[in-house]
Design a protein that fits this description.
This protein is mainly α and 138 residues long. It is built from seven helices and two strands; from the N terminus they run H-H-H-H-H-H-E-E-H. Strands 1-2 form a two-stranded antiparallel sheet. Strand 1 and strand 2 form a beta hairpin. The longest helix has 16 residues. The protein starts with a helix and ends with a helix. The model has no long low-confidence stretch (mean pLDDT 86).
Length: 138
C-alpha cells in the first residue's frame, strides 16, 4: 500500500480529524502547552517516580556500552567541568564540604552548581529545577 492509499484509508476511518479540529482542540486546551504542559509533566513525574529510571535502565540494557561512550565523550569535551565535579565528590566524601538545601527554594535534594569551574569547591547548592533554570538549554 502506498502512502496516498494509506492516508485515504486513514481519513475514511477518522472523518472528524483534520487540521481545523486540531486547531480548535489546541485553543480549547491551552494548559496542555507551554507552562501548563511543564507543570503537568512535573506532576506526572512526581506521581510516577520510578518510570524514567526504568526507561533509562531498559535503554541501557538495549544499548550496551553506548552510555559509557557518551560519558567518555562528555569528559573529553569538558575536562575542566569533569575535574570540578570530581573535586566536589571527593570533598563530600572526605567531609570537607556538606550538601546544603537549595539556596533558592529550600529543596533538600541538591546539585552543586559551579559559577566558575576554576574554583571547584566554590559551589552554590541548587535543586534540579533551580539548576535547570540556571543553565537553560540553548
Amino acid at each position: 500500500m502506498d502512502r496516498k492509499e494509506y492516508y485515504r484509508q486513514w481519513r475514511a476511518k477518522h472523518p472528524g480529524r483534520n487540521a481545523e479540529s486540531c486547531r480548535q482542540w489546541k485553543q480549547n486546551n491551552p494548559d496542555y502547552f507551554a507552562e501548563g504542559r511543564k507543570e503537568y509533566s512535573r506532576k506526572w513525574r512526581l506521581e510516577h517516580p520510578g518510570y524514567y529510571a526504568e526507561v533509562l535502565r531498559r535503554w541501557t540494557l538495549a544499548n550496551p556500552g553506548k552510555h559509557y561512550q557518551q560519558v567518555k565523550a562528555w569528559i573529553k569535551a569538558n575536562p575542566e567541568k569533569y575535574k570540578a565535579h570530581q573535586h566536589v565528590q571527593r570533598a563530600l566524601k572526605r567531609g570537607d564540604i556538606t550538601r546544603l538545601p537549595c539556596e533558592t527554594c529550600g529543596e533538600i535534594k541538591t546539585h552543586a552548581h559551579h559559577s566558575d569551574y576554576a574554583k571547584p569547591l566554590e559551589v552554590t547548592w541548587l535543586c534540579a529545577t533551580c539548576h535547570r533554570r540556571q543553565h537553560p538549554r540553548l
